[in-house]
Design brief:
With 481 residues, the chain is of the alpha/beta class. Helices cover 40% and strands 12% of the residues. Helix 1 packs across helix 11, helix 2 packs across helix 16 and helix 3 crosses helix 6.
Length: 481
C-alpha cells in the first residue's frame, strides 16, 4: 500500500469520539433511508427491518441510522412508516429492542469488545404539513398540523394543470399549531428518545430537514408565525426538544440533528449561507448536540430525491452549497467561545461521494468530520469493508449506483407511454419512481436475508424494471405481522 492509500485509510478508518463520549470506529456513516417496510398505516419495526439492518451491521460502518421513525401516527410520510407507540409498554418496546440488537450485529458485546460495532441511531421525525392525504395516518382530506396555514406546493408552479391538481389533492392546507399542540410534539420527541434509550439504541437524530415539521418551523416559506416560534426565533422548538431529551437520557446517549441547507436558499435579506451558518453555530454553542448532518431538499424542491453530483463536481450548485457550508461550519465552530469541558459537535456531510479519494479529500480539507453514505449503502451494504479492501489493494474500485437510465425503463404499451409522458411534469411523482426503485431494492435485501437459513444471502438485483412495475411493486406488498 503506497503513501496515498495509507493516508486515505488513516483518514477514513480512524476512530473519532463524539462529545458525549461515544466513539465511532471509523468515519463512514450509513445515513437514514426510508425503508417502507412497516404496516400500511404505520407500525413497529418487524422481521424485515431486522433482516435489513443486520446486513448493515456486518458491513463495517462507524454509525448506522434508521429511516425516519415518526413520533406521530397521524403524520406519516409514505404510509409504511415506523412509528413510536403512544404508550410505551414492555410489549411495544420489544420490537424496538430487536431492531437495536440487529443494528449492533448478531453479537453486540463481542463486536463492541473489538471496537467494530456500529453505533445504532434512531432518527426521529414528524411529517407536519408534508404528511400526505390518504396515506398520512389521518382520515381522508383531514388537515395535518403545521407552523402556519401554508399548503405544500402553494408557493411554486408544477409545470402543468395536472401537476398543480396533484399537489392540491395530495397535500391539504395545514392547521396552524397551538402552543399546546407544540408542547405535545415536544413530548412526543422526548417519548421517542426515551424509548430509543430503553430499547438499547446508542442515540437519536432529530430530523429537521427535507421539509418535515421541524424544518417547516425553520423556513420562512412555511412559517409565518409571530409568536415565540416565529422564524426570527427559528431554533426555539428544536432547542426545546433537545433540552428536554437531555433531561431524560443518559449522558453518554448520542443526540444528533439533521439540517436542511437547501431550505436556506429561500430566505430573503440575509444570505442563505450566512443564515445556515448562524443556525449551525447556535446549535453547536448549546453544548448538547453530538453531530450535525447537513442535507437538503423537500417535497416542493425534490433535488434531495434525485441522484446527486460528485462531491468534487463544480457542476452542481446544490453540492457546492453543501460542501462550502460544511467547510465554513467547521471553521466557524472553531471560533465558538466555550468552557474547557464543552466539546463541539461533529459535522456529517452526506451525498455525492463515489471514491475513497473524494472522501479523503473532504476529510483532509476539513469540510467534514464524518462521511454520510445513503443510496450506495443499498447497492453495497458492506461498502466500508469493500472500501478498506480496495484501499489496502491500492485501487479506486468502489460500489457505484447504477445509472438512472438503466434502472428506470419506461413501459412499452401506448396507453402507459401516454400516462408516463405526463407524470414527469409532476416532479414529485417523477422523482418518486426513482425512490420506489430503491425501496424495492431494500425490500429485496430484507427478503433475501429472511428466506436464507444463515442470514447471509445477498440478493441479485434486476435493474431493468419499468416504471409501472416499480410503483406497483412498492405498494402492493404485505408487511409481516
Amino acid at each position: 500500500m503506497d503513501d496515498h492509500a495509507s493516508e486515505t485509510s488513516l483518514a477514513l478508518f480512524s476512530p473519532i469520539t463524539l462529545p458525549c463520549g461515544r466513539q465511532l470506529p471509523n468515519r463512514l456513516v450509513k445515513v437514514a433511508l426510508y425503508e417502507h417496510l412497516a404496516n400500511l398505516r404505520g407500525g413497529p419495526p418487524n422481521s424485515y427491518h431486522n433482516a435489513l439492518y443486520s446486513r448493515w451491521a456486518q458491513g463495517g460502518w462507524g454509525m448506522v441510522l434508521t429511516g425516519n421513525v415518526q413520533v406521530s401516527g397521524e403524520h406519516l410520510s409514505l404510509g409504511r412508516d415506523t412509528v413510536i407507540p403512544p404508550v410505551v409498554t414492555e410489549a411495544s418496546l420489544k420490537p424496538f429492542k430487536e431492531l437495536a440488537s440487529s443494528m449492533h450485529g448478531s453479537s453486540p458485546l463481542a463486536e463492541a469488545e473489538r471496537g467494530t460495532s456500529p453505533l445504532a441511531i434512531m432518527q426521529l421525525s414528524h411529517g407536519g404539513r408534508q404528511s400526505p392525504n390518504l396515506i398520512g395516518g389521518r382520515f381522508p382530506f383531514a388537515s395535518p398540523l403545521g407552523p402556519s396555514s401554508i399548503r405544500v406546493g402553494s408557493s411554486v408552479q408544477h409545470g402543468s394543470f395536472l401537476g398543480n391538481a396533484f399537489y392540491r389533492f395530495l397535500f391539504q392546507e395545514p392547521k396552524p399549531m397551538t402552543l399546546d399542540q407544540i408542547s405535545d410534539v415536544v413530548a412526543a420527541f422526548v417519548r421517542g428518545a426515551r424509548l430509543a434509550a430503553q430499547a438499547g439504541f446508542d442515540g437519536v437524530q432529530i430530523h429537521a430537514a427535507h421539509g418535515y415539521l421541524l424544518a417547516q418551523f425553520l423556513s420562512p416559506k412555511s412559517n409565518t408565525r409571530t409568536d415565540e416560534y416565529a422564524c426570527d426565533n427559528a431554533l426555539q422548538l428544536v432547542r426545546r426538544i433537545v433540552d428536554n431529551i437531555r433531561l431524560e437520557v443518559p449522558e453518554s446517549f448520542v443526540v444528533g440533528i439533521k439540517l436542511n441547507v437547501a431550505d436556506y436558499t429561500d430566505t430573503t435579506g440575509t444570505s442563505p449561507a450566512d443564515r445556515a451558518l448562524a443556525h449551525i453555530t447556535s446549535i453547536a454553542a448549546w453544548g448538547t448536540v453530538d453531530f450535525i448532518e447537513l442535507s437538503g431538499g423537500d417535497y416542493e424542491d425534490v433535488a434531495f430525491m434525485n441522484k446527486p453530483q460528485s462531491a468534487e463536481s463544480s457542476d452542481s450548485p446544490r453540492q457546492a452549497l453543501f460542501t462550502q457550508c460544511a467547510h465554513d461550519a467547521m471553521r466557524s465552530l472553531e471560533g465558538i467561545e466555550r468552557n474547557s469541558e464543552q466539546k463541539l459537535p461533529l459535522i456529517l456531510l452526506t451525498g455525492g461521494f463515489r471514491t475513497p479519494a473524494q472522501m479523503h479529500a473532504a476529510l483532509s480539507a476539513h469540510h467534514t468530520d464524518l462521511i454520510g453514505i445513503g443510496r450506495s449503502a443499498i447497492v453495497c451494504t458492506d461498502l466500508p469493508k469493500r472500501l478498506r479492501s480496495d484501499i489496502d489493494a491500492n485501487t479506486e474500485a468502489v460500489c457505484q449506483q447504477p445509472a438512472v437510465e438503466t434502472r428506470v425503463v419506461k413501459p412499452t404499451n401506448r396507453l402507459s407511454n401516454w400516462l408516463w409522458s405526463k407524470i414527469p411534469k409532476v416532479k414529485l411523482v417523477g422523482s418518486g419512481v426513482e425512490v420506489a426503485w430503491y425501496e424495492l431494492a431494500l425490500r429485496r435485501i430484507a427478503e433475501a436475508v429472511v428466506s436464507s437459513a444463515d442470514g447471509e444471502a445477498t440478493p441479485e438485483f434486476d435493474f431493468d424494471l419499468g416504471n409501472t412495475k416499480i410503483l406497483v411493486g412498492m405498494w402492493l406488498w404485505r408487511a409481516p405481522r
